[in-house]
Amino acid sequence: MIRKKPAIVLFQCQYCLASSMDQYWVETELPENVKLIKVSCSGRIDPLYILNAVQGGADGIMVCGCMPEKCHYKEGNLHARRTLSEFCNFLNLLGYSQDRFVFHWMNIDERGVIQSLLTEFEKNLEKLGAQPHLKTRTFSQEKA
Amino acid sequence: MPTTRDQKIQAEAKRLLQEGVVDVVIGFTKGTLPYKMQPCFIQHAEDVEQLELNGLCSNNLAVYLNHRPKDERTAIVVRGCESRAVQTLVLENRHARENLYLIGVPCIGILDLQKIQQHEQDPVLAIQEEGDQVHVTLKSGEKTFQRSEILHNACLHCNHPLPVNADMIIDEAGLFEERTFDKSYLESFRSLSLKERYQEFTKEAERCIRCYACREACPMCYCEECFVNHSRPQWVDSTIDPAGQQAWHIIRAFHQTGRCVSCGACERACPMNIKMTYLTDLLNQDMFKEYDFEPGLDPALMPPFLALGEDNEKFGVGPEGSHAG
Amino acid sequence: MQAKWISKKELKKLLTAWTKHYLVYAPIDNDHELAFQMVKEPARIVVDGYSNTRYPAKSLFLPQSEVLMKYDGILHSVENTEKEKILFGIRPCDAHAMQLLEHALVDVENPDLYWKQKRESAIVISKACIAPEETCFCTAVGGSPFNTADSDVLLVEMGEDYCVYVLTEKGISLCKELPDAEDTQLQAVKKLTKKVVGRMPVLLPKQELHNALMASFETEFWKDVSQSCLGCGVCTFLCPSCFCFDIVDETVRKERVRNWDTCMFRTYSLEASGHNPRPTKVERTRQRIMHKFAYWVDLIDEIGCTGCGRCVKYCPVNIDIREIAEKALHREFEGMKK
């Protein structure tokens, strides 16, 4: 039986990928199991978006934002870092393992890193298997 | 017979209204059922005799600050949690502190009806509080409890029963002393496995009927439009099914991170007896561990999610350093 | 109407027999509270010694969330799969509420099929209250602890036996093998009825209350009574005669669902333009009380509250509908017809 690849949702700040090559890759050549949610700043990622992804069946969540002090909006990333890391802890307490979260704050010289990060994350998720809890917001026919 | 505590509250309320210091005094009065007290709004000095305070006052009066006009000069009878809620609301610019007069009462704790009546079909006919003892007449017979046996869990785990930053304190003994932050009761939940924690959470959330009594009873829930009512796009299912119920409980609690004053009014308002203070307490425990922050204690300290300190060290990222996972 | 007699022991046997042929819904003990649930083990049914369930019985016919249709490229309406069922142990106030709901949902131009199918496939066996609670006030709003409205069978607990009033054809088919009650037994029931009803609150003057409320519409009265209201939905969700709903499309699940809604929520009356005809809790509280005690009276000349007392018991701030009615009756409003 062919096992389904883990479903990953990638939340990406539009400014964090400094190289246009990387941005092009993310926008056009992402593997099918990765869904891209491009946001204007990592500070725009409401915990509700992440919960929606989790309930909709995401096996892993990856958040990419800018380095501290490199935020286009001055401190959106600092806000994201505090709230989202706590939200990750909170979901971990309610049944969604924190190993299913990856935060990455991109430095300007990190070209080509996003690809390797995703590959590594996917490998880790495959080890963890499908996420068993909190996957409640799927189409009823898929549920069975 | 009013207790000396009630008399002192009444005297202060009378003075405030007679001298025109405030327009209204918010407190509690006798309800229509033996086990319930009603919030009341006293506007005339001759009505102050209605004011009473006992272990059956289950609401957090600070919630009414969100309902009433902002320029109204208001006096509130506050216990520990209520004073911290007022403080947080003032900090979040919901109300001007100079319009408020806090009549502080050292808290005697709130009784949990569920612990008194073992089963709902055995209703309470009368309750009398006498110091540390509570005499209850149930349909099935009379019982005497020690106060500490039937306190609500939020009060058992309360750390700050004394009012903070009140304008005057009623000189009466409270139930217990101040203590340093202690939410060790959560460790049993934290030590469960991932699956068990999920089951525990689901067991509570699945009884939710989405009446939002928890939201409305909470002084910190004052949004003009709640995220569950948002319809374009609809973030949370409004249907009674696990997705909507769980999302409501997760996000509601998360919005309280570093803001919840652990009064437990949400739990006491819930008609389905759903436990939920453990969620906000877990988050507050994290905030205490990470940022040494407790809601409502310091009148100038912003909650961690509003104050953005430079926590590069904590997350292992230097300004130009390498990334962290 | 026929009056029959059965012992408690026999009733238990009968219940067990029914569970074999019908789906039986009855009060089941869940730790701290009772709820109407489908019976799997007849031994778990709570037959006596309860006042009422917390969650209203209307949920069996008007579920809190009900899928109306599904969509997966084409529309599927949900088929009628209702099986014949017995609803056992419902209280007369809840049964009375179902009669009121029939007026609102069925006796209209476009009857509600979903309710109708469920209601028609059910046999309702209600149980008279011989020990009403302090929050009960059915007699004040035109009901009675022995009310037979909308029931097929009414049981009255008489010591070690029950008196069984068989009220409809459906009821007769269930109880035809039971012996008739004797005259002395029926006398005893009458005596008990008198005794229980005598302890209950007196009937509210319906028309007078209606007039008082109508006159109070624009007055400060509503500001006073709604002052402590928090604006949650406890009173209306637990009310057996509230039936407001909201139809939503759950896009992810591809379903159109009908959910309970309540006039106590801000979003209930919020219009697409952003205008809200009931902007504050003053208007919302007024709507809830007026609907029950004034608008229902206009429509069918009956009070829309059945006096089960759930809203009184579970309101987090102890807003008491009985107190509001009393207050309205005793206050002088301008231009009021007496």
Secondary-structure arrangement, i.e. CATH architecture of chain A: 3-Layer(aba) Sandwich
Q: H/E series of chain B, N to C?
A: HEEEHEHEEEHEHHHHHHH
Q: What percent of residues of chain A are in strands?
A: 15-25%
Mean pLDDT of chain B: 90
Oligomer: heterotrimer
Give the biggest beta sheet of chain B: 5 strands, mixed
Strand order of the largest sheet of chain A: 2-1-3-4
Helix/sheet category of chain A:
alpha/beta
- Helix share, percent of chain B: 25-40%
- In DSSP terms, counting alpha (H) and pi (I) runs of 4 or more, how many helices of chain B? 11
Low-confidence stretches of chain A: 140-144
Q: Specify the biggest β-sheet of chain A.
A: 4 strands, parallel
CATH class of chain A: Alpha Beta
Q: Helix and strand string of chain A, N-terminal first? A: EHEHEHEHH
Rg of chain A: 15 Å
Strand line-up across the major sheet of chain B: 2-1-3-4-8
Total strands of chain B: 8
Number of domains of chain A: 1
Structural class of chain B: alpha/beta
Give the uncertain stretches of chain B in residue-range form: 318-325
Task: Write up what this structure looks like.
The complex is a heterotrimer of chains A (144), B (325) and C (338). Chain A is of the alpha/beta class and 144 residues long. Helix content of chain A is 39%, strand content 17%. Chain A has helices at 20-28, 47-55, 76-93, 113-128, 140-143; strands spanning 8-13, 34-39, 60-66, 101-106. Chain A is globular, with a radius of gyration of 15 Å. Chain B contains eleven helices and eight strands. In chain B, strand 1 (24-30) and strand 2 form a beta hairpin. The longest helix of chain B is centred in the N-terminal third of the chain and has 15 residues, at 4-18. Chain B starts with a helix and ends in a 10-residue tail after the last helix. Chain C has 338 residues and is α/β, with parallel strands linked by helices. Chain C folds into two domains: 2-198, no CATH class; 206-330, no CATH class. In chain C, strand 4 and strand 5 form a beta hairpin. The chains are: A alpha/beta (144), B alpha/beta (325), C alpha/beta (338). At the B-C interface, strand 2, helix 7 and helix 9 of B face strand 10, strand 11 and helix 10 of C.
